[in-house]
Amino acid sequence: MVSKKCNENDIRVMFSAFGQIEECRILRGPDGLSRGCAFVTFSTRAMAQNAIKAMHQSQTMEGCSSPIVVKFADTQKDKEQRRLQQQLAQQMQQLNSATTWGSLTGLGGLTPQYLALLQQAASSGNLGAFSGIQQMA
Question: RRM domain: which residues (predicted)?
C-alpha cells in the first residue's frame, strides 16, 4: 500500500529513521510502473521490528485505499501454506456443493486417505481435522 508516485529514495527517507537500510526496492510491473509495494532490508532484525511497530497502518498514502502495511516479507513456506489452504477451501466447496459422493468430479487425483479426511470433515463440520494436512500434501 505504497503510493505509486513514490520512488526508492522516498521510501528510504520514510524508513531511514529506524536504522541502516541495506536495500530498498519498489516492485514494478513489466511496464516499469510501480505496483504499490516496496521491500526494505535493514541491517538488523531489531531495526525492522521497530519500523513495523511504528509504521504499520500508521498512514494512508496518496492514491491508496487503505493504510500502509509494514510487515516481514512472506517466506516461501508461508506462500506454500497459503496455496494449500486455498486448494483445501476449493475442495471443501466442491464437497459441500455435491449432492452425493458419487457425483463428485475433479477430485479423482486425490489419494484415498485425503478424500477420506475430506469426507470426515465435511460430514462432521470439523475443519480441525485438517491440522495435519501439510504433512499429507
Answer: 1-75
- Long-range pairs for 93-102 at CB < 8 Å and ≥24 separation? 95/119, 95/122, 96/122
Strand partners, 34: 28
Classify 41 as helix, strand or coil: strand
What is the identity of the amino acid at 122? A
Mean pLDDT of 32-46: 96
User: Any alpha helices (H) in the chain, and if so which ranges?
Assistant: 8-15, 45-55, 76-97, 112-124, 133-136
Least confident of 22-26, 31-35, 94-98: 94-98
Beta-carbon contacts of 67 under 8 Å, excluding residues fewer than 6 positions away, are 1, 57, 58, 59, 60
Residue 103 has what DSSP assignment?
Answer: G
What are the tens digits of pLDDT across the range 45-81?
Answer: 999 999 999 999 999 999 999 999 999 998 899 889 9
Helix, strand, or coil (residue 24): strand
3 state SS of 51: helix
